[in-house]
Specification:
Exostosin; disordered C terminus; about 10% strand; five-stranded parallel sheet; golgi apparatus; disordered N terminus; Rossmann fold
Length: about 450
Amino acid sequence: MAPGGAPARSFVVVVLAVIALSAIVAVAGTKKALSTVDVEEELDAARAAIRRAARQHRHGGGGDVGSANWLRFYGGEADYDLLSRVYRNPAAFYRSYVEMERRFKVYVYEEGEPPILHEGPCKNIYTIEGSFIEQLELMSPSDAGGGVRTWDPTRAHAFFLPFSVSQMVKFVYRPPSQDRPPLRAIVADYVRVVAARHPFWNRSAGADHFMLSCHDWGPYASRGQPELYTNAIRALCNANTSEGFRPGKDVSVPEINLYDGDMPRELLAPAPGLESRPLLAFFAGGRHGHVRDLLLRHWKGRDAATFPVYEYDLPAAGDYYSFMRRARFCLCPSGHEVASPRVVEAIQAECVPVVIADGYALPFADVLRWEAFSVAVAVGDIPRLRERLERIPAAEVERLRRGVRLVKRHLMLQQPPRRLDMFNMILHSVWLRGLNLRLHR
């Protein structure tokens, strides 16, 4: 039942009616063809600057690596060898990010009403979905000079569809019916409305539009509108390449679980060094999906002293984050879907994440070399997991942890957003899709 006792399906009808009514009066002048010359010129200038930086890096030059701007951007402790190991092309990323800050503008469609549109959950496993929507919505016209949001759609390089799949599930879906088509209907109707009121969707067939969802059903909901699924940028936590996620077009979003909306204090404290981490690896979690079931069947209870693997039965003497801070490796198996919030938690605890998943497109992989700060293990190698980790020498573990420390800020959710944090890295991924340029050698 929806709030107030009305059946969920009736709520869908009301939502669709409200959205549809907003399209009755068309905005004057939207039938006219809009010039894209200025926007394209800006993108061309950015592409040229990034390519110059990338060529300079490939030919052995560090570009601005010695400049004060560069050092402030990456942090004074980062040397060029470390940057080249962690970033695919540090010179190109620096130039791309600066060009994004200088030029990138996003138009947020104003059609529709909460709770399904313009807001989302800012706590729990879907935190990033609500937080991203909220941060864009909180921007005001007075911020326009220095912010990414624009209220002039003719200046926009990208258009955001501010619906929340998590909110759709909360207010529309009726468990355990498996009746999910209403989610697709809402998405399809919203796209129909903005396409009728504005010329921008039809101009590009949705290719410069994007959505963001951290719900497992985000990919399913996106299929409600064929052009959204095929052409638009889908920013998804459930970034499974075996289920239609396309890394060159779509954006992989880090999954983060904030129980009260804030980063846990335990993960904000200075992390222990390698000498204070007696545990080889750690995992705790439920049997969500076949990967975790396989992990728990092989390793649960085998060696609590150095290789603790639990379900929800952690000993009273320790808590989840304290185990992460005492482990060299943190196991991050996929659950029902490929993404896991443990990847972000591990990095914040400076514990090397061990990603155990098949078909997972890792976040920000256009920019980051995940092999420089994580370990990838195929699902079929779970029986040999301990042997695999024990063969990694201490010096290599420390090199991986240096990479972890360097990328921590990219996986931090800040309020308000800060340079190079998760919010802005997601925007940068969208910016790259608009440029159609991937930053690698």
